[in-house]
Amino acid sequence: MIDNKIWSREETLVREEFETIQLERLKKTIERVFQNVPYYKEKLKEAGIEPGDIKSLGDLSAIPFTVKDDFRKNYPFGLFSSPKRDIVRFHASSGTTGKPTVVGYTRKDMATWSELIARIVTMAGVTDEDTAQISFGYGLFTGAFGLHQGLERIGAAVIPISSGNTEKQIMIMQDFGTTALISTPSYALHMAEVAAEMGIDPKRDLSLKWGLFGGEGSTESMRNEINERWGLFATENYGMSELIGPGVSGECPALKGMHISEDHFLPEIIDPKTGKVLGEGEVGELVITTITKEALPILRYRTKDITSLHYEKCECGRTTVRMSKIQGRSDDMLILGGVNVFPSQIEDVLLQIDGIGPHYQIKVFKKGYLDKIEVDVELVDANLLDSFALLESLNQKIKHQLRTVLGIEAKVNLVEPRSLARFEGKAKRVIDMREVK
Ligand code: DLL
Description:
The protein is of the alpha/beta class and 437 residues long. 31% of the residues lie in helices and 25% in strands. The protein folds into 2 domains: 330 residues, Rossmann fold (3-Layer(aba) Sandwich), CATH 3.40.50; 99 residues, ANL, C-terminal domain (GMP Synthetase, Chain A, domain 3, 2-Layer Sandwich), CATH 3.30.300. The protein has a 9-stranded mixed sheet with strand order 4-3-5-6-7-8-9-14-13. A 4-stranded antiparallel sheet has the order 10-11-12-15. It starts with 14 loop residues before the first helix and ends in a 5-residue tail after the last strand. The mean pLDDT is 93.
């Protein structure tokens, strides 16, 4: 048994208790969306399901999936189950086209979210004695605000520094005595490099004890390096805007997967090709049904994240199911410094700029610890290659559009007409040059 404070009794229920709560909440959720969301009512009716038909958790598999595209079709608030006057917060993340995926929270949802974060930060080791530096970007992204509320809820002192301005981050860390660092894993590694360049030895000069990392994938070797460089204990957590934001699951010190708060989320693993539900330990796509949300309950959401579920009781004393580290995605979404981007969104931006053709290639690679992209774009008119000034201005324009529309920084290479590869089958537009450790 390991020594780890548990925030809430609901993290230690026996399986039958979970199942009773889950069924009751699932029924209420289905009733709620049926009454309030015409889109869901239609979808459920088409599948031949009325709210009263759900009699056991096994009936869940008859319910149709929700996918990211359903958000696009219902942009901005069509999937909301609460009237706008009950919404107290909006957040958003990248959609599959130009429009973002919008999510909303009622007062009760905000309380649920803080409770979920209180659980994961407590399991990571953070207490009211800690000073937590939040180096996620504040804004529409759920990461910073989500962690913020839960850390305040447990009584930690929060430094809402946001991301970027890395030298200042290190200075604040030193001067304020930061004990917990909250960021993406790649940014934590980048910050460590900057600290070294500044002549800071974290083990000697800083007071860090805990690191809570999420929002993007990482490897065990990245974790080891973070622990080693910062002299802290790193845990990982997982979440998604559509489901609530961070707070869906988090690691305890046993480091044997991320505990899912099962009294709020019903997880399933499916075969991404057939949609068939898979068993414990089998690897597939994570599908989640939210069972306590008011503003935006979501039925069987296909996360596209590949993982597996494990139900045996953990050494930490929690009985909640654990999901293994995310192994990848079943779609082509890229996560660049925590910003989610689909190649199709990059294409949308490029297509609206005069002078460049529809042929492009995105190269993803590592610069230090950060994922970076380079976009090769074909010119329409080869004569442009003779004018440095025109080329440079087009290049700047493309970069500017990618930055303002998608929030990403990209190196842009303009290349001759017809110089990029053409494809007969599915185009391979993304070349991933990151080494898999
Ligand atoms: O990234 C929520 C979050 C913020 C979680 C901060 C944890 C910490 P989105 O911007 O909607 O929400 O992106 C969700 O990010 O489907 C995964 O592909 C990826 N992701 C999030 N956490 C992890 C993780 C937030 N620990 C998408 N490992 C998800 C791997 C992760 N991928």
